[in-house]
Amino acid sequence: MQAKVSFTQKVKEELCSIPFSDEHLRAFLAAFIKVNGHLTIRDGKSMIVCKTENAKIAKFIYHSIDRIYGITPRFSYSKEMNFKKRITYSVIIDEGDYIIGDLEISFIEGKIAKNIVSTDDAISGYVSGAFLASGSVNSPKNSNYHLEIPLNDESFARWFSKLIVKYKATEFTPKIVKRRNNYVVYLKKAQQVVDFLSMMGCSNMTLEFESIRIDREFSSIGNRLQNLDSANYSKTMAAADKQIEDIKIIDNVLGIENIHNEKQKSLMKIRLNHDDFTLFELAQEMTRELGEPISKSNINHLFRAIHTKAERFKGAVKK
Fold first, then answer.
1. In order of start, what are the domains of the chain with their CATH numbers?
2. Per residue in 153-195, pLDDT tens?
3. How far apart are CA 151 and CA 186, in angstroms?
């Protein structure tokens, strides 16, 4: 049985298929290596090692390094012999010191180099790289809209949050929460999640998110309207029951035909014959019967008068 692909995985796989500019890709790599990579020394040589469980991400990082630096990384992989038997791919990049220096990456400080994120395109690349490294986004089928990027350094999380806000094309209000050993930068508003996907260039997943979200919200609106109609109907029926009770008291004591007020008499007869009519429908029916305009306000006034009269006659009603 084929494993179900998560919404996050589909977003990340689309990210790996976008033809980024060199400026965008350099910022992308700077963030991805900062969040995912670590520097190691072997045989006197510095190397950057990035790990992922997604083969497409590993392949994308491989080709990106080759494109920007003309360096061909090496691959290795390990397989966990547990229930899921996950494979972890390692992208090993030689000349680590040179690349870290060129991308101005610091694994000690949280500050993001201004030269790497000097334009909106570069900012987009940087946040995309961080998202590819550790981010996730809830499926829009879930009403709990949520996009997050866990980072392991509080200072870096604050710099990263400010960088998202700095993006000129869209307004973002990210928040930070500490979760175990990570500082999670996250967005909760549906429109900001959509804008973030769009900012990263994931047009297909942006459209899918919007389509599912709109369908969900229309369905939710329909359910709310249906519930409202049901509630209004229940209120109408409850009010009608009380009005009919008043009318029957008056009919038992005086008889409806002996009521001198023609409007009250007409309303009593219509209500007894139409216990499900709303005030508006009662007003329409009376307008047709009497040949003069009757409003909902008139109906309310008449029912108040009928109720007052019924209250006076209650003691006279035979048990």
1. 7-201 (3.10.28.10), 229-316 (no CATH)
2. 999 999 999 999 999 888 999 999 999 899 999 999 989 999 9
3. 11
